[in-house]
Amino acid sequence: MGTSSNHARMRPQLSRAALAVGAAATAAALAPGLAGARTRAHAARVLNISENANLHLNNKHGIVLKESGTAKGTLSGPLYLQLEVTSTRSVKATVQVYPGGGSIKGSASASYRVNGATASFTGRLNITGGGGKYSKAKGSGLSFSGTIKRSNDAVTVHVSGKMSY
């Protein structure tokens, strides 16, 4: 009688031990695949962009120009630019572009030079974020340049460089 009661008490212990071993083996077998899936899900895409736009003036407040037009290039779509002349030699800008599937925003600073009826600017742009499929967009030191036609404040702009998203 003592033997059968010992066997009855050991069955739940053996069953729990077998379950624990089985769960550990399953977790170990699945872990490499799950880790790889996480790595692939977080890998950023890198895109070498080159955008050009001819913009027209929407609004002007003193030394701040608000312009819009269409970017043509790698990420073609509507583009909005706010350009502020911060001194006789520099400008700052914020840029938003809306390619298919999302949006991208950035900020730039550039040197500024007036040459008769045209002013030009050359500097760097940093991509600071976005929305939609570009929600994780980032990039730094992209080339940012263009011209301002002083008679009507029409702006041309060119941006090129690498971004990730």
Structure described in brief:
With 165 residues, the protein is α+β, with helices and mostly antiparallel strands.
Textual characterization of the structure:
Strand 6 and strand 7 form a beta hairpin. This protein is about 25% helix and about 60% strand. It has about 160 residues and is an alpha+beta fold. It contains 1 helix and 8 strands, in the order H-E-E-E-E-E-E-E-E.
Order of adjacent strands in the largest pleated sheet: 1-2-3-4-5-6-7-8
Please give the alpha-carbon distance between the first and last residues: 71 Å
- What CATH calls the topology of the largest domain is AOC barrel-like
Tell me, briefly, the overall form.
elongated
Number of DSSP-assigned strands = 8
Uncertain ranges: 14-37
The CATH architecture assignment of the largest domain turns out to be: Beta Barrel
- By secondary-structure content and strand pairing, the structural class works out as alpha+beta
Succession of helices and strands: HEEEEEEEE
Mean pLDDT: 85
Beta-strand residue percentage: over 45%
- CA radius of gyration: 29 Å
Portion of residues in helices?
10-25%
